[in-house]
Amino acid sequence: MAESPSPIKFGIIGCADIARKVSRAIILSGNSTLYAVGSRTTEKAARFAKENGFPEWAKVYGSYEAVLEDPEVDAVYVPLPTSLHIKWAVVAAQKKKHLLLEKPVALNVGEFDVILEACESNGVQIMDATMWMHHPRAAKMKEFLLDSSHLFGQLKSVHSCFTFAATKDFLENDIRVKPDLDALGVLGDAGWYCVRSILWAADFTLPKSVLALRGTIFNSAGVIIACSASLQWEDGKTATFHCSFLANLTMDLTAVGTNGTLHLHDFVIPFEEKKASFATSVKSGFTELVTGWDPKPSEHTVMTDLPQEALMVREFSRLVGSIKFGGAKPEKKWPALSRKTQLVLDAVKTSIERGYETVEITG
């Protein structure tokens, strides 16, 4: 599809740390521009704009409303606490602003459905900010999983882990540990990535049931800061994940098929910005004396000129441009993936709340 005749003008509402990374991504994307930023004070918005590469002519506002009222803003990036998503995402959609929404997209699927209805009725595109899916490595890995020569075979299990050792200040003050701001805690943060990676490997077929594993850790305010769960499909596929704010940085993903296995150790954020690797093994066995593998796993490296977050912004802006300049309809794929991810998160949370009962998933 041809590039938009002019760049998509982004407004950012909220000056969270992650907005620094996305501001850079907008600059690098090539088809979007930083047009406005809004915060609770003009001073904070002005400081953010100055520190994050906004052009001198960019608009600086002392409220979120002002960004959404600006008729020149095409799209907004929303890095606000999850508890505020339903309010501001709905208002943005009503103002005909396309939405790049941080994850988790909502506190539960009921809230997200309200956001979706607002987007659909106002003809705006919505995409969540799960950056790793836009790295070219993801497409290469999917080729292996779906290879027509059946190198991988039938998916049997997926295992995902995302942990990082949060600082004392984080565990006391970050919005992700506050029940009134991000009540899903680590499940909504690191757990979102784990669930998305599992669904991605399973070609986004929802599991039949979810069971949270015992051992969930809560902080003093009752917010989850470490948890695990298992997922079960009707055809016998299984998956497990673990997420935590209390363990060393780990971003592992393993997908096991009848003939092959996929491994990677940096699935959320690659070790290096311009290249990313993954390992595959096909019909591996032992050597004659069982002293090694034959054949050995092979490593594959994928290069990229742009970081994955810039590729995400580029794709989102392409979709927005096709709507604005080409009369296209919003792409339904991305909100559908967001909703499925949120459904599984909800099921895990419910399982924990019910004393680790199995929870059936209904779409």
Secondary-structure blueprint:
Blueprint: E1 8-13, H1 17-29, E2 32-38, H2 42-51, E3 59-61, H3 64-69, E4 75-78, H4 85-94, E5 98-101, H5 109-122, E6 126-128, H6 136-145, E7 155-165, H7 168-173, H8 185-188, H9 190-201, E8 209-212, E9 217-218, E10 224-232, E11 238-244, E12 246-257, E13 260-264, E14 275-282, E15 285-286, E16 293-294, E17 298-303, H10 308-326, H11 333-353, E18 359-360
Parallel strand pairs: 1-2, 1-4, 2-3, 4-5, 5-6, 7-11
Antiparallel strand pairs: 7-12, 8-10, 8-18, 9-10, 10-11, 12-13, 13-14, 14-17, 15-16
Key descriptive features of the protein:
363 residues, alpha/beta, Rossmann fold, Dihydrodipicolinate Reductase, domain 2, 2 domains, ten-stranded mixed beta sheet, six-stranded parallel beta sheet, 11 helices, 18 strands
Task: Give the structure's gist in a few sentences.
The chain has 363 residues and is of the alpha/beta class. The protein has helices spanning 17-29, 42-51, 64-69, 85-94, 109-122, 136-145, 168-173, 185-188, 190-201, 308-326, 333-353; strands at residues 8-13, 32-38, 59-61, 75-78, 98-101, 126-128, 155-165, 209-212, 217-218, 224-232, 238-244, 246-257, 260-264, 275-282, 285-286, 293-294, 298-303, 359-360. The protein is 34% helix and 27% strand.
